[in-house]
Amino acid sequence: MLSNSPIQNKYVERTPSSRALAEQAGAYFPSAITHDSRHTTPYGIYVERALGSRKWDVDGNEYVDYFGGHGALMLGHRNAEVEGCIQEALAAGTHFGSSHQFEVAWAASVQALMPAAERIRFTASGTEATLLAMRLARAYTGRSRIARFRTHFHGWHDHMAFGVSGHFDGTATPGVLREVAAQVLLLDPDDIDAVARALENDPDIAAVILEPTGGGGGMAPLAPDFVAQLRQITEQHGVLLIMDEVVTGFRVHKGGAQSLLGVTPDLISLAKILSGGLPGGAVAGRADILDHLDFQAAADRSFEKIHHPGTFNANPLSAAAGAKTLEIIASTDATERAAAFGARLRPRLNQVFADRGLAWAAYGEQASFFVFMNAKGQAVDPLNFDPLAIPYQEIKAKPPGLMNRLRLALLIGGVDISGSGGGVISATHDDNDLERTVTAFDQAAAMLMAEEDLPRT
Ligand SMILES: Cc1ncc(COP(=O)(O)O)c(C=O)c1O
Asked: What is the pLDDT of residue 399?
């Protein structure tokens, strides 16, 4: 495993127990992993426990965690109140095959923060939520096609499995039927006039779905008025607007991106923070649309309802954790504190890049940050960086080898960022975390610049 990269060698030296587990895992899992975004070369860390903003690997190394349970952990790891509720629910039973009090409390807490959630149906994941939202849109409008934006991610089901990091021409990825891909219209997220023309020209579009702060949870931000304009255009053409708030929900604002932007969607897909660190998702939105899941509405109005089972829909543990998490988010300044940390961290990282003469930039809004790694070597001033000036495809594409080496270099410094080159911030990140992160980025920049030719300011 010795390589010609001092960064990789140092990482391997610090993580012998993770390496041993990765070797065992290789006998069971493709690429030895269980989620594509955990793919790390030569292997990722194996984590033993976590608390607040920190986690510890099986070799005892401590990390400031910006992976944040893939964005699910707005209150950090092991929030005591949430954990208490999970334990209480666990003691009562994990699955009753019946309705229960926790799901009612959970739905009430969603509706309190998102008034557009007139009705709610819980699912087991965000992927299931966008799948059901799409099906509801088709049933409600009687139209077939779904419009989506290039680079926006909505889970891994067939309609969403292309046009995110490749196949931007709309062709199907392996295992996806051409006929299914043909029912999806891919649009550019930087051209609202083209969106208007597309909706004008195609009367068979049931819905437009988008990540409301931009693709990759805001990694490729949208122009300020884009979502409001999209709302107008969709309304004009009787097309439903689905806001995929799986990442943004309860993160960018207590009430999600819809509150932040002041735009009301017809349907909302939710997951991650929604279920307080346990598995879960939901579709929420207009009552007349969710009526397509309602037995009585279907009987009264003589339409065939959508069949929607799901063994773990609104399971009591996720419901208890979700309800308590949303209650804390509603009644404290958790969202604001996480966003304030982001506002302090991003300029400090940019100062590191500027001091090192590295033409990279940290950017983002609220409780997240992203690193622009400048694959094309453009003139970039880290202290005056405007992500909207970079084409959306370019800002989201990361040089994969370099991204991996940055992650390893940061892990050596005790910081874990996400595989896509950014991080999510929780309400538990504090000044110690901030200083440790700035130091880790500084050391990582030095190590990387010593190893390879990176763009200079
Ligand atoms: C915006 C968005 N939508 C949907 C999903 C899919 O959610 P899940 O991983 O729970 O299936 C994700 C997952 O990261 C996401 O970021």
From this structure: 81
CA geometry: angle 243, 423, 26, nearest 5 deg = 100
Q: Which residue, chain included where needed, has tokens 């070799």?
A: 59
Per the structure block, which two tokens stand in for 248?
């943004």
Q: Where do we find the tokens 């012998």? A: 16
- In the numeric block, the tokens 């969403």 are attached to 160
DSSP-derived pairing of the beta strands 62-65 and 281-285: unpaired
Identify the structural domains of the chain with CATH numbers, from first to last: 6-76+333-451 (3.90.1150.10), 80-331 (3.40.640.10)
339 and 437 Cβ atoms separated by less than 8 Å: no
At 267 the pLDDT is 99
Which residue from 440, 403, 393 is spatially nearest to 165, judged by alpha carbons? 393
Spans of the chain, pLDDT less than 70: none
**Nearest residue (CA) to ligand 1, atom 4:** 154
Distance 70 CA to ligand 1 centre (A): 9
The alpha carbon of 12 and the centre of ligand 1 are apart by a number of angstroms equal to 31
The predicted structure's pLDDT at residue 357:
98
Identify whether the C-beta of residue 321 lies closer than 8 Å to the C-beta of residue 329.
no
User: Which helix (DSSP H) or strand (DSSP E) does residue 123 occupy?
Assistant: strand 119-123
Judge whether 123 and 283 are in contact, CB under 8 Å. Answer: yes
pLDDT of residue 10: 97
Angle CA(422)–CA(424)–CA(425) in degrees, nearest 5? Answer: 130
